[in-house]
Amino acid sequence: MTISLDPPEISKAYAGEVTLRCEPNISQTVEVETLSIIRIMKRDTFDATEKTWVTLTETKNVDIDNAFIQITWPSVVPETFGVYRCDAIGFTTNSDIVLGKSEDLDIGLSALTANSLLDLLLETKNYLQENVVKNSDEISNLDLKLTTLLEKEKDISREIADRFKMSEKTRESVIRSLLFPTSSVHWPGQRYALLQPVSGCPVDFSFYGGHTGYFKLHAVSSSDFNKSSNNSHPHIAGPLYTVSGENQFITLKFCVTNGAFNTGNWPNGNYCILKVGSSYPTGLSAGSIDIRTKSTNNQDNMGGNIPSGKPSQMQFCCKRSSDRSQLMVMPTEHPFYLYRLGGACQEIAGMDVQLEYFEIQTEGSNRASGTFPYHIPQSDGSLRFEICYYSKS
To answer: Domain Apextrin C-terminal, which positions (predicted)?
Structure first.
C-alpha cells in the first residue's frame, strides 16, 4: 500500500487544500481481485509508547480497479500534522487472503524546530478547546431539546392515564361500544365453544379476537355414511362428511370465545355448549360423551383453538333450569347453534329455531356421564346428535 500527500510538503502557513491518499501498489494488485477493507490511520499523539493508532476513515468491499481512500482538508489545521499509515485486506482470484500496509508518513512534525513545535502545540490546544466549547454548546442544545421532549411525553402519559382512570367494567363498555355499536345484548363471558354455522362465528365482544378449531372423527366405514346429510344439517359449517380412500370422516368446526372480558353469565334455559379449558362458565353443569370412533388405524385429528377433550371424548357445559318455553335473551344479529338438552329446543326471544342433527358412525357402546346433550344411539351403531339452529326472526 502507498500513502501520499498532495502537496508533498506543507507548513502552517500553507493556505491551500491538502489531500492524504492511500492506494495499492501496482505490483501488489496483480492477483488481488477485491479489497475487503482499506483504511487510513493516525498515530495517537498522546500515547507515549507510539503504539496506538486511530482509524480516521475506511471503506469496505472495493473492486481493485477503484481501490483508494483519501482525506481532504480545505486548509492546514493543527489536526493535519502527525504520523499516518494505511492498510488493507484483500482476496485473490483463488480466494486467498492478502494483507497490505504502507510505510509511515510523517507530516510536518519531524521538520519542525522546537519553537515551531511549541507554536503548533499551542495552536492544537486552542483548536481543541474551540471544538470542546462548540461541542459543549451542541450538547447543551440537545439536552434542552431532550428535556422538552421528556416533559411532553410525561404530559401525554398523564393525559392518557387520566382518560383511562375508570373501572374495568367501564373500559369494557367503551371498547364494546366502539367495536359493536349496534349491539344491545352480548354473548356471555368466560371460556366456551359453539358449533360453527355456515355463516361463520358471531361478531361479538366475547368472540372478538377468538379463534376457530375443529375435531375430525374417524368414523366406522358404512355404506350409509352420508345418509344424514340430506337436509338434516343444512346450516352447519362444512364439509361435514369427507372420504379419503376407504376412510370416512366427520369434521366438526367450532367458534371459541376469547375469555378476556366479563360480559355476564349464561341465562336460565335448557341447552348445552362445549367446554373450553379447565373450568365451566358460571351456573353450568359438567358432562361428557365418549364416542367409540374407528379403532383400527385410527386417524382422529384436531387443530386450531379447540374445546376441551378430544374427538373421541366431547366435554359439555349444560344448563337445566326452567321451562324451555320461557324465552331466553341472547344476541340475535348472527345465527348460532346450541346443543339440545332433552325435549324441544329452547326458545330464544327474537329468533327462529330449527331442529337439525348429524350422525357419527361408531363401533357402538358409546358412554355418557354427567349432564349431557340429547343424543340417540341408532340400531346400526351410529350416534345421532340433535342440535338447535337459531336465526333472527
So the answer is: 187-390
